Amino acid sequence: MDTGIGMKSAKSLILLLLASLMLWAFSTSAMAGAPQDARQATDSEAENSLLFLQSLDQKVADISWRLAASSADICPDKYGALGINLHDAAQYIPRIRPAAIAAFGFGDGFPAVLSIAAGSPAQLAGVEIGDRITAIDGIALTPHTVRANARAYYDIVEALMSRLEALPAGTAIQLDLLRGEESLSLTLSAHSLCQVRVEVVPGGKINADSGERIVQVHGKLAVWVRSDDELALVIAHEMAHIFRGHHGRLKQERIGTGLFSGFGKNGRKLRDIERESDRYGIFIAARAGYDYRVAGALWRRLSKASGLSGIWATSHPNARNRGRHADAVVKEVEALHNAGLALNP
Ligand SMILES: [Zn+2]
Fold first, then answer.
1. What is the DSSP string of 284-309?
2. Which of 122, 265, 268, 315, CA to CA, is 20 to 30 A from 109?
3. Other C-beta atoms lying within 10 Å of the C-beta of residue 87
Protein backbone atom coordinates (compact mmCIF):
# COMPACT_ATOMS: atom_id res chain seq x y z
CA MET A 1 0.00 0.00 0.00
CA ASP A 2 1.05 3.54 -0.48
CA THR A 3 2.39 5.46 2.42
CA GLY A 4 1.07 8.69 1.06
CA ILE A 5 1.90 11.67 3.17
CA GLY A 6 -0.67 14.25 2.41
CA MET A 7 -2.93 16.70 4.08
CA LYS A 8 -6.15 14.89 4.27
CA SER A 9 -8.63 17.67 3.74
CA ALA A 10 -7.23 19.00 0.48
CA LYS A 11 -6.69 15.53 -0.85
CA SER A 12 -10.09 14.31 0.15
CA LEU A 13 -11.66 17.28 -1.53
CA ILE A 14 -9.88 16.55 -4.78
CA LEU A 15 -10.86 12.91 -4.60
CA LEU A 16 -14.44 13.82 -3.88
CA LEU A 17 -14.44 16.12 -6.88
CA LEU A 18 -12.99 13.44 -9.09
CA ALA A 19 -15.32 10.83 -7.76
CA SER A 20 -18.33 13.04 -8.19
CA LEU A 21 -17.34 13.61 -11.79
CA MET A 22 -16.77 9.91 -12.20
CA LEU A 23 -20.18 9.09 -10.76
CA TRP A 24 -21.72 11.63 -13.04
CA ALA A 25 -19.90 10.33 -16.09
CA PHE A 26 -20.87 6.79 -15.21
CA SER A 27 -24.52 7.58 -14.68
CA THR A 28 -24.65 9.73 -17.80
CA SER A 29 -23.07 7.08 -19.99
CA ALA A 30 -25.34 4.44 -18.50
CA MET A 31 -28.27 6.48 -19.73
CA ALA A 32 -26.93 7.08 -23.22
CA GLY A 33 -29.29 4.57 -24.76
CA ALA A 34 -32.38 5.89 -23.01
CA PRO A 35 -33.11 9.41 -24.12
CA GLN A 36 -36.55 9.90 -22.59
CA ASP A 37 -36.55 11.24 -19.05
CA ALA A 38 -32.80 10.76 -18.95
CA ARG A 39 -32.21 13.57 -16.46
CA GLN A 40 -34.45 12.05 -13.81
CA ALA A 41 -33.01 8.58 -14.23
CA THR A 42 -29.47 9.97 -14.05
CA ASP A 43 -30.22 11.68 -10.74
CA SER A 44 -31.55 8.50 -9.19
CA GLU A 45 -28.51 6.61 -10.49
CA ALA A 46 -26.29 9.18 -8.74
CA GLU A 47 -28.36 8.86 -5.55
CA ASN A 48 -27.91 5.10 -5.61
CA SER A 49 -24.16 5.45 -6.12
CA LEU A 50 -23.95 7.85 -3.18
CA LEU A 51 -25.97 5.54 -0.95
CA PHE A 52 -23.73 2.67 -1.97
CA LEU A 53 -20.65 4.70 -1.01
CA GLN A 54 -22.31 5.38 2.34
CA SER A 55 -22.77 1.66 2.91
CA LEU A 56 -19.01 1.25 2.36
CA ASP A 57 -18.38 4.06 4.86
CA GLN A 58 -20.48 2.21 7.40
CA LYS A 59 -18.67 -1.08 6.87
CA VAL A 60 -15.27 0.60 7.14
CA ALA A 61 -16.38 2.43 10.31
CA ASP A 62 -17.41 -0.83 12.00
CA ILE A 63 -14.17 -2.61 11.10
CA SER A 64 -11.98 0.35 12.05
CA TRP A 65 -13.58 0.77 15.45
CA ARG A 66 -13.07 -2.89 16.22
CA LEU A 67 -9.41 -2.75 15.13
CA ALA A 68 -8.60 0.44 17.03
CA ALA A 69 -10.43 -0.71 20.17
CA SER A 70 -8.46 -3.94 20.45
CA SER A 71 -5.04 -2.34 19.95
CA ALA A 72 -5.23 0.32 22.66
CA ASP A 73 -2.07 -1.03 24.34
CA ILE A 74 0.11 -0.80 21.22
CA CYS A 75 -0.85 2.61 19.80
CA PRO A 76 0.96 5.71 21.06
CA ASP A 77 -1.86 8.28 21.03
CA LYS A 78 -5.38 7.96 22.29
CA TYR A 79 -8.32 10.33 22.21
CA GLY A 80 -11.96 10.46 23.22
CA ALA A 81 -13.75 8.85 20.30
CA LEU A 82 -17.46 9.06 19.59
CA GLY A 83 -17.59 6.71 16.60
CA ILE A 84 -19.26 9.01 14.10
CA ASN A 85 -18.20 10.34 10.73
CA LEU A 86 -19.95 13.36 9.26
CA HIS A 87 -20.58 14.80 5.84
CA ASP A 88 -22.17 17.88 4.43
CA ALA A 89 -23.87 19.12 1.26
CA ALA A 90 -21.00 21.57 0.64
CA GLN A 91 -18.46 18.83 0.00
CA TYR A 92 -20.25 17.55 -3.08
CA ILE A 93 -19.68 19.27 -6.40
CA PRO A 94 -22.61 21.26 -7.80
CA ARG A 95 -23.59 18.61 -10.35
CA ILE A 96 -23.91 15.88 -7.78
CA ARG A 97 -25.11 18.08 -4.90
CA PRO A 98 -28.87 17.82 -5.63
CA ALA A 99 -28.55 14.04 -5.67
CA ALA A 100 -26.58 14.14 -2.39
CA ILE A 101 -29.22 16.34 -0.76
CA ALA A 102 -31.97 14.03 -2.01
CA ALA A 103 -30.10 10.93 -0.83
CA PHE A 104 -28.95 12.23 2.55
CA GLY A 105 -31.50 14.92 3.40
CA PHE A 106 -29.10 17.58 4.64
CA GLY A 107 -30.36 20.55 2.70
CA ASP A 108 -30.99 22.66 5.82
CA GLY A 109 -27.38 23.73 6.32
CA PHE A 110 -26.34 21.32 9.08
CA PRO A 111 -23.78 18.52 8.67
CA ALA A 112 -25.22 15.01 8.90
CA VAL A 113 -24.05 11.73 10.37
CA LEU A 114 -22.52 9.60 7.60
CA SER A 115 -21.64 6.50 9.61
CA ILE A 116 -21.81 5.18 13.18
CA ALA A 117 -19.41 2.50 14.36
CA ALA A 118 -20.96 -0.56 15.97
CA GLY A 119 -20.32 -0.53 19.71
CA SER A 120 -19.31 3.15 19.78
CA PRO A 121 -20.62 5.81 22.19
CA ALA A 122 -22.67 7.32 19.34
CA GLN A 123 -24.44 4.03 18.72
CA LEU A 124 -24.95 3.36 22.43
CA ALA A 125 -26.46 6.83 22.91
CA GLY A 126 -28.91 6.27 20.05
CA VAL A 127 -27.47 8.53 17.32
CA GLU A 128 -28.74 7.48 13.89
CA ILE A 129 -27.35 7.81 10.38
CA GLY A 130 -28.77 10.94 8.76
CA ASP A 131 -29.16 12.87 12.04
CA ARG A 132 -28.09 16.50 11.53
CA ILE A 133 -26.00 18.15 14.24
CA THR A 134 -27.37 21.55 15.30
CA ALA A 135 -25.47 22.18 18.56
CA ILE A 136 -22.55 20.82 20.57
CA ASP A 137 -22.69 21.21 24.36
CA GLY A 138 -25.41 23.80 23.99
CA ILE A 139 -23.49 25.94 21.52
CA ALA A 140 -25.50 26.20 18.33
CA LEU A 141 -23.84 25.62 14.97
CA THR A 142 -24.62 28.27 12.40
CA PRO A 143 -26.52 26.73 9.53
CA HIS A 144 -24.82 27.50 6.26
CA THR A 145 -26.35 27.91 2.87
CA VAL A 146 -24.55 26.34 -0.02
CA ARG A 147 -25.14 28.20 -3.24
CA ALA A 148 -26.23 25.81 -5.96
CA ASN A 149 -23.15 26.56 -8.06
CA ALA A 150 -20.61 26.93 -5.21
CA ARG A 151 -17.58 24.75 -5.74
CA ALA A 152 -17.17 21.85 -3.37
CA TYR A 153 -15.44 22.53 -0.05
CA TYR A 154 -14.68 20.27 2.85
CA ASP A 155 -13.89 22.88 5.52
CA ILE A 156 -17.17 22.67 7.44
CA VAL A 157 -16.98 18.95 8.04
CA GLU A 158 -13.23 19.06 8.65
CA ALA A 159 -13.63 21.74 11.34
CA LEU A 160 -16.43 19.86 13.05
CA MET A 161 -14.65 16.50 12.89
CA SER A 162 -11.48 18.04 14.34
CA ARG A 163 -13.52 19.57 17.14
CA LEU A 164 -15.14 16.25 18.02
CA GLU A 165 -11.80 14.47 17.77
CA ALA A 166 -10.17 16.85 20.25
CA LEU A 167 -12.16 15.46 23.18
CA PRO A 168 -10.30 13.78 26.03
CA ALA A 169 -11.45 10.23 26.80
CA GLY A 170 -14.34 9.94 29.22
CA THR A 171 -15.69 13.40 28.41
CA ALA A 172 -19.46 13.63 28.24
CA ILE A 173 -20.66 15.64 25.28
CA GLN A 174 -24.15 16.76 24.43
CA LEU A 175 -25.28 16.73 20.81
CA ASP A 176 -28.46 18.48 19.70
CA LEU A 177 -29.79 16.75 16.63
CA LEU A 178 -32.48 16.99 14.03
CA ARG A 179 -33.94 13.69 12.88
CA GLY A 180 -36.29 14.58 10.07
CA GLU A 181 -38.44 17.27 11.71
CA GLU A 182 -37.87 16.03 15.24
CA SER A 183 -35.34 17.69 17.59
CA LEU A 184 -33.54 15.64 20.18
CA SER A 185 -30.64 15.95 22.55
CA LEU A 186 -28.31 13.05 23.34
CA THR A 187 -25.38 12.74 25.73
CA LEU A 188 -22.37 10.71 24.57
CA SER A 189 -19.46 9.61 26.67
CA ALA A 190 -16.23 9.66 24.61
CA HIS A 191 -14.39 6.35 24.63
CA SER A 192 -10.60 6.10 24.83
CA LEU A 193 -9.42 4.83 21.45
CA CYS A 194 -6.30 4.84 19.29
CA GLN A 195 -6.13 8.17 17.51
CA VAL A 196 -6.90 7.44 13.89
CA ARG A 197 -9.63 8.52 11.51
CA VAL A 198 -10.51 6.05 8.79
CA GLU A 199 -12.55 7.17 5.82
CA VAL A 200 -13.63 5.96 2.44
CA VAL A 201 -12.61 8.12 -0.47
CA PRO A 202 -14.49 7.36 -3.65
CA GLY A 203 -11.23 6.81 -5.51
CA GLY A 204 -11.07 4.47 -8.46
CA LYS A 205 -7.87 2.71 -7.40
CA ILE A 206 -7.49 -0.60 -5.59
CA ASN A 207 -5.52 1.10 -2.89
CA ALA A 208 -5.46 2.63 0.56
CA ASP A 209 -3.09 5.11 2.13
CA SER A 210 -2.48 7.06 5.27
CA GLY A 211 -1.38 10.41 6.57
CA GLU A 212 -0.22 11.16 10.09
CA ARG A 213 -3.62 10.40 11.62
CA ILE A 214 -5.89 9.55 8.76
CA VAL A 215 -6.37 6.36 6.81
CA GLN A 216 -8.06 6.55 3.45
CA VAL A 217 -9.57 3.50 1.83
CA HIS A 218 -10.45 3.84 -1.82
CA GLY A 219 -14.01 2.80 -2.60
CA LYS A 220 -12.79 0.46 -5.30
CA LEU A 221 -10.61 -1.43 -2.83
CA ALA A 222 -13.53 -1.80 -0.40
CA VAL A 223 -15.47 -3.46 -3.22
CA TRP A 224 -12.52 -5.50 -4.51
CA VAL A 225 -11.77 -7.33 -1.23
CA ARG A 226 -13.41 -10.73 -0.82
CA SER A 227 -14.29 -10.44 2.87
CA ASP A 228 -14.36 -8.19 5.91
CA ASP A 229 -11.26 -10.09 7.07
CA GLU A 230 -9.35 -8.85 4.01
CA LEU A 231 -10.63 -5.31 4.41
CA ALA A 232 -9.62 -5.42 8.09
CA LEU A 233 -6.08 -6.49 7.14
CA VAL A 234 -5.71 -3.60 4.69
CA ILE A 235 -7.00 -1.04 7.21
CA ALA A 236 -4.83 -2.59 9.94
CA HIS A 237 -1.76 -2.24 7.68
CA GLU A 238 -2.46 1.50 7.26
CA MET A 239 -3.17 1.89 10.99
CA ALA A 240 0.20 0.29 11.65
CA HIS A 241 1.91 3.07 9.65
CA ILE A 242 0.28 5.54 12.06
CA PHE A 243 0.84 3.57 15.29
CA ARG A 244 4.51 3.09 14.38
CA GLY A 245 5.01 6.76 13.53
CA HIS A 246 6.25 5.97 10.02
CA HIS A 247 5.25 9.30 8.55
CA GLY A 248 7.19 11.26 11.12
CA ARG A 249 10.16 8.96 10.66
CA LEU A 250 10.19 9.43 6.89
CA LYS A 251 9.87 13.18 7.27
CA GLN A 252 12.71 13.28 9.78
CA GLU A 253 14.96 11.32 7.47
CA ARG A 254 13.80 13.43 4.53
CA ILE A 255 12.64 10.44 2.60
CA GLY A 256 10.01 11.29 0.05
CA THR A 257 7.39 8.94 -1.26
CA GLY A 258 7.39 10.41 -4.75
CA LEU A 259 8.03 8.74 -8.04
CA PHE A 260 11.80 8.34 -7.80
CA SER A 261 12.00 7.81 -4.06
CA GLY A 262 12.04 4.05 -4.34
CA PHE A 263 15.67 3.62 -5.34
CA GLY A 264 18.79 2.94 -3.32
CA LYS A 265 18.87 3.50 0.41
CA ASN A 266 15.51 5.25 0.47
CA GLY A 267 13.90 2.35 -1.32
CA ARG A 268 15.27 -0.03 1.29
CA LYS A 269 13.84 2.07 4.12
CA LEU A 270 10.47 2.27 2.45
CA ARG A 271 10.43 -1.49 1.97
CA ASP A 272 11.36 -2.00 5.64
CA ILE A 273 8.51 0.24 6.68
CA GLU A 274 6.07 -1.67 4.48
CA ARG A 275 7.24 -4.96 5.95
CA GLU A 276 6.84 -3.64 9.47
CA SER A 277 3.30 -2.48 8.68
CA ASP A 278 2.43 -5.81 7.11
CA ARG A 279 3.63 -7.53 10.27
CA TYR A 280 1.88 -5.17 12.71
CA GLY A 281 -1.23 -5.17 10.56
CA ILE A 282 -1.58 -8.94 10.87
CA PHE A 283 -1.23 -8.69 14.66
CA ILE A 284 -3.79 -5.87 14.83
CA ALA A 285 -6.31 -7.81 12.72
CA ALA A 286 -5.73 -10.97 14.79
CA ARG A 287 -6.27 -9.10 18.07
CA ALA A 288 -9.61 -7.84 16.79
CA GLY A 289 -10.68 -11.40 16.00
CA TYR A 290 -10.47 -11.20 12.21
CA ASP A 291 -9.25 -14.18 10.22
CA TYR A 292 -5.66 -13.02 9.75
CA ARG A 293 -4.73 -16.32 8.04
CA VAL A 294 -5.89 -14.92 4.68
CA ALA A 295 -3.05 -12.35 4.79
CA GLY A 296 -0.58 -14.15 2.49
CA ALA A 297 -3.10 -14.72 -0.28
CA LEU A 298 -4.44 -11.18 0.12
CA TRP A 299 -1.04 -9.50 -0.24
CA ARG A 300 -0.15 -11.64 -3.24
CA ARG A 301 -3.40 -10.73 -4.99
CA LEU A 302 -3.27 -7.10 -3.94
CA SER A 303 0.31 -6.56 -5.06
CA LYS A 304 -0.76 -7.61 -8.54
CA ALA A 305 -4.15 -5.91 -8.65
CA SER A 306 -3.04 -2.50 -7.43
CA GLY A 307 -0.56 -2.29 -10.29
CA LEU A 308 2.46 -1.89 -8.02
CA SER A 309 4.86 -2.95 -10.68
CA GLY A 310 7.70 -1.27 -12.52
CA ILE A 311 8.93 1.80 -10.74
CA TRP A 312 6.67 1.29 -7.72
CA ALA A 313 7.99 -2.20 -7.20
CA THR A 314 11.29 -0.68 -6.17
CA SER A 315 9.81 0.79 -3.00
CA HIS A 316 7.24 -1.91 -2.29
CA PRO A 317 8.11 -5.49 -1.51
CA ASN A 318 7.12 -7.56 -4.53
CA ALA A 319 4.12 -9.85 -4.52
CA ARG A 320 6.04 -13.05 -3.83
CA ASN A 321 8.18 -11.64 -1.02
CA ARG A 322 5.26 -9.92 0.53
CA GLY A 323 3.13 -13.04 0.46
CA ARG A 324 5.94 -15.16 1.92
CA HIS A 325 6.57 -12.63 4.67
CA ALA A 326 2.85 -12.54 5.53
CA ASP A 327 2.76 -16.36 5.67
CA ALA A 328 5.62 -16.33 8.18
CA VAL A 329 3.92 -13.74 10.38
CA VAL A 330 0.67 -15.72 10.26
CA LYS A 331 2.55 -18.79 11.54
CA GLU A 332 4.04 -16.70 14.32
CA VAL A 333 0.64 -15.36 15.39
CA GLU A 334 -0.90 -18.83 15.22
CA ALA A 335 1.83 -20.18 17.50
CA LEU A 336 1.24 -17.41 20.05
CA HIS A 337 -2.49 -17.95 19.82
CA ASN A 338 -2.20 -21.71 20.30
CA ALA A 339 0.07 -21.23 23.29
CA GLY A 340 -2.46 -18.84 24.82
CA LEU A 341 0.06 -15.99 24.78
CA ALA A 342 -0.64 -12.30 24.22
CA LEU A 343 -0.46 -11.18 20.60
CA ASN A 344 2.30 -8.63 21.00
CA PRO A 345 4.01 -7.72 17.73
ZN1 LIG B 1 1.91 0.63 3.47
1. HHHHTT--GGGHHHHHHHHHHHTT--
2. 122
3. 25
pLDDT classification of 111: cutoffs 50, 70, 90: very high
Taking the model in full, what pTM does it have?
Answer: 0.86
How many whole angstroms from 2 Cα to the centroid of ligand 1? 5
DSSP 164-231: HTTPPTT-EEEEEEEETTEEEEEEEEPEEEES-EEEEE--SSS-EEE-SSEEEEEHHHHHHSSSHHHH
Q: How far is the CA of 113 from the centre of ligand 1 (A)?
A: 29
User: Residue 195's pLDDT band (boundaries 50, 70, 90)?
Assistant: very high
Domain ranges within the chain, ordered by starting residue: 20-194, 197-338
**CATH superfamily placement of domain 20-194:** PDZ domain (2.30.42.10)
Percentage of residues in the chain with pLDDT exceeding 70? 81
